[in-house]
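Collaborator request, handled under Task 6.
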Amino acid sequence: MIGAAACRAEGFDATAARHGQIAELTASVQSDQAVIEAAQVQLAYTRPTSPTIGVTGIRQIDIGNIIHPADANGLVVVTQLQPILIIFALPQTDLMRLQQHMDHGPLTAIAFG
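Structure tokens returned to the collaborator:
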């Protein structure tokens, strides 16, 4: 009887030890996953993105330059294309005719550059 009880106690201890190892390894996997996610966040900061869609102009820096978030010039100038705002002068004598055309719908503008 004593041998059977000792066997059961030994089996219980071994099972408890395995459960402890499983919990330890699970915590280790979760910790590693958190490290991977933190590295992915840091990696996202290495890819500059524009807040607007448009066309880039001439770059303001060269490869190898050290840049900072507070730099006034930025990396490149992005020109927004849609919607675009155009300001132009119009003789006052043409204003009445223009307003009459605007009453019939949107106008089309042709820009020459």
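The cover message to the collaborator said: "The radius of gyration is 35 Å. Residues 2-44 form the longest helix (43 residues). Please let us know whether this matches your experimental observations."
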